[in-house]
Amino acid sequence: EMANHERNKRLLLELLKRPVNGRCADCGAPDPQWASYKLGVFVCLNCSGIHRSLCSRVKSVTLDFWEDELVEFMKSNGNDSAKALFEKAVPAYYYRPQEHDCAVLREQWIRAKYERMEFTGETKYPPISYTTGFYEGVLWKKGKENTQFLKRKFVLSERDFTLTYYNKEDSKGPKAIISIKDLNATFQPEKIGHPQGLQIIYQDGSHTRNLYVYHKSPEEIVTWFNAIRAARYAYLRMAYPTGSDEGLIPKITRNYLKEGYMEKTGPLQKEQFKKRWFVLDSQNRKLLYFKDQLDAEELGVIFIGTENKGYSAKECVPQHGRGKWKCGVTVDTPQRRFIFMCEQEGEQKEWLDALSQVLSRPMAPQDYAKCKIFWRQRAA
Questions:
Q1: pLDDT tens digits, one per residue of 20-31
Q2: CB contact set of 51 (below 8 Å; sequence gap of 6+)
Q3: What is the Cα Rg of the chain in Å?
Q4: Phi/psi of residue 207, each to 5°?
Q5: What is the distance, to the nearest Å, from the Cα of residue 4 to the centroid of all Cα atoms in its chain?
Q6: 251, 180 Cβ separation under 8 angstroms
Q7: What mean pLDDT is predicted for residues 64-74?
Q8: CA separation for the pair 21, 16 (Å, rounded)
Q9: How far apart are alpha carbons 87 and 120 in whole angstroms?
Q10: Does pLDDT of 178 surpass 90?
């Protein structure tokens, strides 16, 4: 019995050495130590918990007892053959979660693959909702001036490249018609305080506008997210007809590089330090700041160019004890110097790392255009 157990464990560890099994079948985390012996896949601890909640049989590769026939089943299957079956037809725009993505995305990806069999390539009837180019429903939306979430009707149209929402069921017209051109969506469960919390961002004139929404159903909010991604992808294909998927897919939606509170002083650096919520949007090369983390509009925005154009970020020691926080970050632009204070050194280091990632990335032609418009608006 014991010898058998050891032999089977050795065989499973051999299987894990195959490159195809070296990452979790679902989120790509390295070195998976669990397996679903119903599906024949090796998964990480996090994903194994999701599989268990779907009544899929899971065991630890090293800690559990494995019967010979289960080892044989793992041997004749594995991550590559499961992928060929369950991920045969994943749409290009569909978001494939990674290990650091939020729980709702990872869980719905696993359910979509193995439970709802959405990607096996068979024709579905009725068609899967995010594939039809039109989606409507009700989301709970945070009020612009208050913290209350109320039900609002949303309508997404790929044909018109718009996302529209209505304030009242019977209202004459929409509250806002948002162009897909500048739309972004990112899951923000911690900030919104709901596991299905989604932030929708768009340009409203010279301002950035944030909507904070959630749905009580995890499947529904992920459907909204992928429906938005489908419309964004269609828009990008139209706007950049020669663009490759490899170039377009990262532009569909994006998470922010870094967010958090810092203290900020005014242009003379003699004003009181005030606590502000900062967001670094790497793709647009913008550092935005808000009074609070769930604000609808920013108070200000700083364009982050490249070092050879006179932009930089470095650590600074506070000269005067006006702020409560002591870990400083100086951001220099050709126009002026900004001084920010972080509460802890860890935060300061994260901000400096994130800013240096943007500073070291060459500017694209459209960045120069954005930069010109940006400083023109500031001057106005």
A1: 999 999 999 999
A2: 36, 39, 43, 58, 110
A3: 24
A4: -100, 155
A5: 45
A6: no
A7: 95
A8: 5
A9: 6
A10: yes
